[in-house]
Amino acid sequence: MLPDLQLAVRLQELDNRVTELTLEISSLPKHIAEIAKKLEIHERKLEGDRAALSANQKDRKKMEGEIQAQEQKISKLRGQMIEAKTNEQYKAFQNEIEFCEKEIHSAEDRILELMAESDPLDKNVKAAEAALKQEKAQVEAEKQQATARTAEDKKALDQLNHERSQVVARMNPNIYRRYEHIRKARRGLAVAEAIDGRCNACHMAMRPQFSQELKRGDQVMACESCTRLLYYNSPSSVEDLAGQSAPAVQR
User: Fold this and answer.
1) In the predicted model, is pLDDT for residue 21 greater than 50?
2) How far, CA to CA in Å, does 248 sit from each of 3, 97, 132, 145, 151?
3) Residue 39 CB neighbour total at 10 angstroms
4) Of residues 181, 245, 184, 231, the one with CA closest to residue 19
5) Domains of the chain
6) Sequential DSSP letters for 26-55
7) SS3 state at 187
8) Residue 11: phi, psi to the nearest 5?
9) Which residues contact 101 (CB under 8 A, 6 or more apart)?
10) What's the pLDDT tens digit per position in 205-236?
11) How confident is the model at residue 241 (pLDDT cuts 50, 70, 90)?
């Protein structure tokens, strides 16, 4: 395989990895934003549960205050009833006392209802608080992992770009310009392998004569269908650049 074609194959490998890392780096903040949004939704739900429990407790205190007020009123009415001078006055006080007692019974019934409602509300709040605490810890762990992952990706990206610049410096400028032109036109894929007489990118069959010329490897050739640069040798041959291996950057 021609040296320039070997370099083009390696350049394609580097560019593929650069694209992967760039996408991953850009996706991590979005992932963090998504889990933070879910956490915010759960926090708002907990606030709603707490508000419902607080309203329940306020209503109970209000009913308890109402009962106390009615009991005080009854005590005052009974004192006044003793001083009643006519039956009409006595009955009036008695009717008012009965009304106050009904109000007390009504408030007591409402308190029982509120107590029955309070138990599940209290359980919901406690369960939501426990779940939220666990979720916050999980979100924080994911944030730390994402931060570490981003740092690793950026370091790997720097290494890849450094190696890429070295590869480009060794390429024939015309071949490199041709590579870039095809890569932009073909969604990032400028180099393809020829397998079983077909371009492995567009899968179109090659003419027999074209295939034979490609196998000779004495010129840089492009697919007659998709225009991508073609190589016949295995990609592993690229590792033989300058007599030493060129391993991919480890993550």
Assistant:
1) yes
2) 18, 92, 42, 23, 18
3) 16
4) 184
5) 20-170 (1.10.287.1490), 173-243 (no CATH)
6) HHHHHHHHHHHHHHHHHHHHHHHHHHHHHH
7) coil
8) -60, -40
9) 70, 74
10) 999 999 999 999 899 999 999 999 999 964 45
11) very low
Hey, which residues does 229 pair with through a beta bridge? 191, 222
Give residue 240's pLDDT band: very low, low, confident or very high (50, 70, 90): very low
Q: In the block, which residue shows the tokens 């991508």?
A: 228
Q: Kindly list the strands in the beta sheet with 221-222, ordered across the sheet, starting from the edge strand earlier in the chain.
A: 198-199, 191-195, 229-231, 221-222
Residue 246 is predicted with a pLDDT of: 40
- What distances in angstroms separate CA 45 from CA 11, 193, 196, one per listed residue? 52, 56, 61
DSSP letters, the chain, are --HHHHHHHHHHHHHHHHHHHHHHHHHHHHHHHHHHHHHHHHHHHHHHHHHHHHHHHHHHHHHHHHHHHHHHHHHHHHHHHHT--SHHHHHHHHHHHHHHHHHHHHHHHHHHHHHHHHHHHHHHHHHHHHHHHHHHHHHHHHHHHHHHHHHHHHHHHHHHHHHHHHHHHHS-HHHHHHHHHHHHHTTT--EEEEETTEETTT-PBPPHHHHHHHHHTSS-EE-TTT--EEE-S-GGGGGGGGGS--PPPP-
> CA-based diameter of the chain, in Å?
131
Alpha-carbon distance values, 225 to 30, 83, 135 (Å): 39, 115, 53
| Block residue for tokens 């990118």 | 201
